[in-house]
Amino acid sequence: MNRKKISFIGAGKVGTSLAYLLKSKGYEVIGISSRTINSAQRAYEFIGDITYSNDIYMFVEDSDVVFITTNDDSIKSVIDGIKENCEIRQGQIFIHTSGSISAEVFSPLEEKGGLGISIHPLQTIANPQEGVKNIIGSLFAIDGNEKAFDYAREIVEDLDGEPFFIESEKKPLYHLSAVIACNYFVTLMNKSVDLFKKIDIDEKMGTEGLIKLVRGTLNNIERLGTENALTGPIARGDINTIQDHIFAMKKHSPETLELYKTLGLYTVEVALKKGSIDKEKAKKINEILEKI
Asked: pLDDT band for position 75 (50/70/90)?
């Protein structure tokens, strides 16, 4: 086990979850800080047996590794504050966990001898209780200073995860993929539940029914891949059904039309790749969708 001393700046869902997990794996987590003492105290109550503070620089100089687990907009200001307020040791490792920001943001600390990397768990973390369960076994995106890659790989492997290394300039594209698959999926589920409400289906019943439907879809994707898992009217080329949808939206949910059009046009491309419709059928469906 690597005995480097670790601290965290940022006591939110990600920081609290990672601090708990690394401590449970035998890492020496010496402290967690937040600008608000209540947030730091909540993290302490969840992690247990750890020092906490609302002085975000309190543990930096005593740490071999500093995790910055704040929200994305605060990362640069925290780094600038560390450069201004703390002595940076040669080889001291700094890690942020943002999915969209590259490790190039650590350049002010690298100029003083630090090593900056990013380790992002490809996982949704609603709260620390779920985070400590979901992070284990995840895929982790890593970018930054190669001198710290061995340490990053060690952390990921200790969390039973799978590391992959990404070019810094491609980080936003990586995060975009995650946002579409995770965050926008929640939005689509919310829209589906709202449509159920319009036909007086109880929200709880509707949500449970949709979750079962989605689980079946995820099982198909896992077994067959995304293209072969596609079902539904566009995959079948059912033009009458698509027109019925459009008629119903115009009457009951006109705000859904643009979303249906955008997703429909992309779904036509997937159906073509699957081979379940031909180019002529795809053209007819696209013409209908473009007229929305």
From this structure: very high
User: For the residues 143-157, what does the mean pLDDT come to?
Assistant: 97
216-226 burial by CB neighbour count: b if 16+ within 10 A, else e? eeeeeeeeeee
Domain boundaries, the chain: 5-168, 181-290
Give one DSSP letter per residue of the chain, joined into a string. Answer: ----EEEEE--SHHHHHHHHHHHHTT-EEEEEE-SSHHHHHHHHHHH-S-EEES-TTTTTTT-SEEEE-S-HHHHHHHHHHHHHHSPPPTT-EEEE--SSS-GGGGHHHHTTT-EEEEEEE-S--SSHHHHHHHSTT-EEEEEE-GGGHHHHHHHHHHTT-EEEE--GGGHHHHHHHHHHHTHHHHHHHHHHHHHHHHTT--HHHHHHHHHHHHHHHHHHHHHH-HHHH--SHHHHT-HHHHHHHHHHHHHH-GGGHHHHHHHHHHHHHHHHHHTSS-HHHHHHHHHHHHT-
- pLDDT digit string (tens) for 181-218? 999 999 999 999 999 999 999 999 999 999 999 999 99
Domain 5-168 top-level CATH class: alpha beta
